[in-house]
Structure to design on (512 residues):
């Protein structure tokens, strides 16, 4: 798609979003089925020409279907679409899961789902429409396992402090989309509390075995290793708070593979609801993969930024960010500032 | 003895988790707890809304947290059957009012909150109705359903479970 076509697409999107709304679009008329579409366009102007990526990029379009199969059983699917130019697989099944309600406080899920390792991955999924900032924390491109296929036991609103838990028996990252290709390979234990309204604190532990790690797609380690399959452990902690004046999110994680060296990352976000539709925000995003890491590409990445979210309607928003980026990976160094904007819609 | 020792050795492999927690948490936790405390000091609830539900046993619902149902934290009744929730749509008279009373935000933000919840897989999608009589009619005809309506309609919901908010 040429730059001109992208521009036209962007103008079209803005006109559609900002124009008079048709009959209320989110209204759910069907008794048992619900369909939503989420999409976005991102633009960027960087201070350095060596930065990867294009000025204007179309984002994933998520087709989200929720169906109630019976009083206790529901199905949720999420399929993303992206032109070949941006991604090898133009159509990807991101989630496909059945959920069975055991009671009002406990339920069971089966299928492909997002790992409940942190607040972000358990809440935002692929719709940028809900992201507090334009991009995910950088750690998602490195050592956070986004999806897993397996069986998940969950519970919430337990006790005085709103205790909740998730326990996942999964196929692991090496299995890809093949359920239990290597048997039961990963375990996730996540627990947390919602002690008061709007506050959530959670922690999780994830353990997996990365099969034949040298040929794994996320391998980037520079250290020599004699192991084919490696043990992978991840700890994550999240704090989320939102009221009618502020919203804040802290994501923290640490991981280790073979050596005793620990990789760690943190993402901090604070937004002030200045007006009902205007939210200025600041954020920082830090990632440190140890020099002696065997599997993931070592290096340090820092991002700091300020931004503004303008909620155009129930179905759309605009985010603008000014970001400072500093990255020193094992053979590349980049230091630049950029301005980004993103228009995201949910229909 | 050997078993205890083996357990200690196995356990020590995970001690790094506590080191990293100590390193990364702390200030952000204190900061957010402070914000949360500020929010606890706010809030003024005027009972101008009613929670209505079509349930067989009224005694059961009394034990439930109505706020949790309306905000999507609770999606099922005690027996596991889903709660069929109806909320005011954009043209409904109580749209903004319910947003501010239940979510302390606008009706638009209430919609976004629910859309996010559904998209994350945590909540069942609610229905939206543009007038209260449609909401009441739906609840009367649908076992397991619930809604929030204006208090002025109190006299037409006598056969339902009603709780003042």
């Amino acid at each position: 798609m040429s730059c001109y076509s992208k521009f036209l697409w962007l103008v079209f999107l803005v006109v559609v979003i900002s124009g008079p709304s048709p009959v209320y679009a989110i209204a759910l008329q069907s008794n048992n089925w619900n369909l939503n579409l989420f999409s976005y366009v991102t633009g960027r102007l960087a201070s350095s020409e060596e930065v990867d990526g294009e000025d204007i990029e179309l984002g994933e379009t998520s087709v989200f279907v929720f169906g109630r199969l019976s009083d206790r059983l529901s199905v949720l699917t999420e399929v993303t679409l992206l032109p070949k130019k941006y991604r090898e697989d133009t159509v990807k099944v991101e989630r496909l899961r059945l959920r069975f309600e055991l009671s009002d406080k406990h339920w069971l899920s089966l299928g492909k789902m997002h790992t409940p390792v942190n607040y972000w991955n358990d809440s935002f999924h692929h719709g940028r429409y809900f992201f507090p900032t334009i991009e995910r924390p950088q750690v998602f491109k490195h050592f956070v396992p986004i999806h897993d296929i397996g069986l998940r036991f969950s519970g919430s609103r337990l006790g005085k402090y709103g205790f909740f838990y998730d326990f996942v028996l999964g196929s692991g990252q090496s299995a890809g989309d093949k359920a239990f290709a290597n048997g039961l390979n990963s375990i996730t234990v996540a627990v947390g509390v919602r002690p008061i309204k709007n506050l959530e604190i959670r922690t999780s532990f994830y353990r997996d075995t990365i099969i034949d790690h040298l040929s794994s797609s996320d391998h980037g380690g520079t250290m020599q290793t004699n192991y084919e399959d490696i043990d992978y452990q991840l700890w994550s902690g999240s704090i989320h708070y939102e009221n009618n004046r502020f919203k804040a999110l802290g994501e923290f994680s640490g991981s280790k593979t073979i050596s005793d060296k620990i990789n760690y990352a943190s993402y901090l976000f604070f937004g002030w609801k200045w007006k009902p539709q205007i939210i200025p925000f600041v954020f920082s995003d830090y990632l440190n993969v140890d020099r002696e890491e065997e599997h993931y590409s070592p290096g340090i990445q820092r991002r700091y930024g300020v931004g503004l979210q303008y909620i155009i309607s129930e179905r759309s928003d605009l985010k603008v960010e000014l970001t400072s980026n500093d990255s020193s990976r094992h053979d590349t160094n980049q230091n630049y500032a950029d301005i980004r904007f993103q228009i995201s819609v949910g229909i | 003895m050997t078993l205890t020792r083996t357990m200690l050795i196995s356990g020590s492999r995970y001690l790094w988790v506590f080191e990293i927690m100590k390193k990364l948490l702390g200030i952000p936790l204190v900061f957010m707890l402070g914000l949360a405390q500020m929010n606890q000091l706010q809030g003024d609830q005027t009972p101008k809304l009613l929670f209505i539900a079509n349930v067989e046993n009224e005694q059961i619902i009394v034990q439930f947290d109505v706020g949790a149902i309306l905000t999507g934290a609770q999606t099922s009744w005690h027996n596991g059957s889903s709660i069929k929730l109806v909320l005011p749509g954009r043209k409904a008279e109580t749209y903004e009012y319910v947003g501010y009373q239940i979510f302390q935000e606008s009706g638009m933000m209430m919609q976004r909150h629910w859309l996010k919840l559904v998209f994350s897989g945590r909540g069942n999608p609610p229905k939206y109705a543009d007038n209260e009589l449609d909401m009441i009619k739906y609840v009367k005809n649908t076992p397991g359903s619930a809604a929030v309506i204006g208090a002025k309609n109190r006299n037409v919901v006598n056969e339902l479970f009603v709780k003042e908010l």
About this structure: Chain B touches chain A through 58 residues (CB under 8 Å). DSSP finds eight helices and five strands in chain B. The beta strands of chain B are 49-53, 84-88, 127-129, 145-150, 161-164.
